Amino acid sequence: MAICLVAGIGLILYPVVGTYLNERSFDEVVSRYEETVQTLPEDERTEMLAEARAYNESLRGDPVHDPFVANSGYAVPDNYDDLLNVDGTGLMGTVSIPAIDLTLPLYHGTSDDVLSHGAGHIPQTSLPVGGAGTHAVITGHTGLPTARLFTDLERLQKGDVFVVEVLGERHAYAVDDIEVVEPDDVSSIRVEDGAEYVTLLTCTPYGINSHRLLVRGAPCELPADDALAPTPGAPW
């Protein structure tokens, strides 16, 4: 009886403890990334940003495909993995969403491994370095038992602010559009001439994943630093 009770408690606590440990791990990765960026020579950082912006120019007019649909024509440009890859791990930056108390490392690509360790950037969209005529798309899983990731994305409202940091540059975006679309409807994540957007993308509804939730942000002023600080303590 006692063994069954302990096992039952363990099953109940597993998702909570797992989520807490994963979020601690995410925080450590983010801190290491920021420390690495601080050690970069200024000329190297400037060159990496210039290469990323040149990449964005080269993407204009290319089609965009849903990363979660098999055989969708999704292809990774040859030089993609080398861009903004500061430490060789595929980490390109961070994304912070104060309204849902979330900060995640941001990696290249959308592989299963990437999306179990943070948010992923869809390669056929602009790299998140800002600038007119860009539209970066950042994706994350919903509903994993041991990590929140983008599970709470559905709580965001128009006007909420999120921040993407790449190579020490922080870009803030205010949510200006929220929609649910079919997986093959990529019209809302294409580049618009003269506009700058970042869209956060996840599967929806929870447990079914038949559609995509798109939360788009347009540039805005950076929030105060304390608004970006994570809430201390365990999630229980």
Topology:
Elements: H1 2-38, H2 42-59, E1 91-97, E2 102-108, H3 112-115, E3 119-121, E4 134-139, E5 161-166, E6 169-181, E7 196-204, E8 211-219, H4 225-228
Parallel strand pairs: 2-3, 4-7
Antiparallel strand pairs: 1-2, 1-5, 3-4, 5-6, 6-8, 7-8
Descriptive report:
The chain is of the alpha+beta class and 236 residues long. It has a single domain (2-228), classed as Sortase (Sortase, Chain: A). Helix content is 27%, strand content 25%. It has helices at 2-38, 42-59, 112-115, 225-228, and strands spanning 91-97, 102-108, 119-121, 134-139, 161-166, 169-181, 196-204, 211-219. The protein has an 8-stranded mixed beta barrel. The relative contact order is 0.16. This is Class C sortase. Keywords: Hydrolase. It holds the Pfam family Sortase. InterPro entries: Sortase, Sortase_C, Sortase_dom-sf.
Main sheet: strands, sense, barrel: 8 strands, mixed, barrel
Mean pLDDT: 87
- Please state the CA-atom Rg, rounded to the nearest Å: 18 Å
Find the CATH topology.
Sortase, Chain: A
Side by side, the strands of the main sheet go 1-2-3-4-7-8-6-5
- CATH superfamily, please? Sortase
Structural class: alpha+beta
The CATH architecture term is Beta Barrel
CATH class: Mainly Beta
What's the structural domain tally? 1
Number of helical segments?
4
Protein name: Class C sortase
Keywords: Hydrolase
GO molecular function, one term: hydrolase activity
Active site: 141, 203
